[in-house]
Design goal:
Layout (H helix, E strand, L loop, with lengths): L2 H7 L6 E6 L6 H14 L3 E5 L6 H23 L13 E4 L12 E7 L5 H18 L2 E9 L4 H6 L10 H13 L4 E5 L10 H10 L4 E4 L5 H10 L3 E4 L9 H13 L3
Parallel strand pairs: 1-2, 1-8, 2-3, 3-4, 4-5, 5-6, 6-7, 7-8
Bound molecules: SN-glycerol-1-phosphate (1GP).
SN-glycerol-1-phosphate (1GP) binds next to strand 8.
Length: 265
């Protein structure tokens, strides 16, 4: 059963929010507390990945800690009919930069092609390396076309991406069409983690008009205005990474994410 695919590709829910946790940036315990805060704020998924020098053991420990914490809250909420938040099943999905950053504990993995990379490694090399592990561990792969737009950040540099400029709507349209024709289930527009500015909403709108795939948007989204702009342009998922990792205090993080999610149309 394609449980994670069905969940991620459900376009009837309106725009949803997910956080991105980089295991290299915090201990598994801190990651679990941040995931809990996000769940209480109304996030719908936890992505784990993102670092260029990820340690597999750390990825695994982080996923196990997040899943345990979410399950506990989910169980507690199921015992209390008045409880709100955290009661839903929130998948923990790998968002790997390569074949080294995988864990059998994940609910799924975005199995992606960096479509505008100039390096064979990110077009098909890492995927071929990682496929046997994904198969053996029984992690559900969700195929995804991944496109890096300016400014692109570290992901753009490491991935050797031929970046999409903010006005290059025709290029985005063609990539979105190609992603659908290749059979991908998802299409991700990335500005790069910590980007000074997010993906131009015109690019999101063009992608929305050019394919039927759920569109994920991330990079440089730091407040409810940016979240709303992406959502109104047609994003199905909004991903925030950096902002999630800026707060050590869980209740403060929950408040910040609640405000950001409130902007989503
Ligand atoms: C990175 O798009 C995500 O893949 C998140 O970016 O860290 O800027 O929120 P930020």
């Amino acid at each position: 059963m394609d449980i994670v695919s069905e969940y991620m590709c459900d376009r009837t829910t309106g725009t949803r929010h997910a956080i991105l946790i980089d295991p290299a940036d915090q201990t598994p315990e801190v990651a679990a507390n941040r995931a809990l805060a996000a769940a209480h704020a109304g996030s719908s998924m936890i992505l784990v990945g993102g670092s260029s020098d990820t340690d597999t053991e750390n990825v695994h420990a982080t996923i196990v800690a997040i899943k345990e914490a979410l399950e506990l809250v989910s169980w507690a909420a199921s015992q209390d009919s008045d409880a709100v938040g955290g009661a839903r099943e929130i998948p923990v999905v790998l968002f790997p930069q390569g074949a080294a950053a995988l864990s059998p504990a994940a609910d799924g993995v975005t199995f992606m092609m960096l479509m505008n990379s100039l390096d064979q490694r990110f077009l098909i090399g890492e995927q071929v390396k990682g496929a046997p592990f994904v198969k053996k561990a029984g992690i559900e792969p969700v195929s995804m076309g991944y496109l890096i737009c300016e400014p692109g950040g570290k992901a753009g540099q490491v991935g050797k991406a031929d970046l999409i400029g903010p006005l290059q709507t025709e290029r985005v349209a063609a990539y979105a069409m190609a992603a659908q024709f290749l059979g991908f289930r998802l299409f991700y527009l990335e500005a790069g983690s910590g980007a000074e500015y997010p993906v131009n909403p015109d690019l999101i709108k063009t992608a929305r008009e050019s394919c039927d795939l759920p569109i994920i948007v991330g990079g440089g989204i730091r407040d409810s205005h940016a979240a709303r702009a992406a959502s109104e342009a047609g994003a199905d998922w909004i991903i925030t990474g950096n902002i999630t990792e800026e707060y050590d205090d869980a209740s403060k993080l929950q408040a910040v994410l609640t405000d950001l999610i409130s902007g989503i149309a």
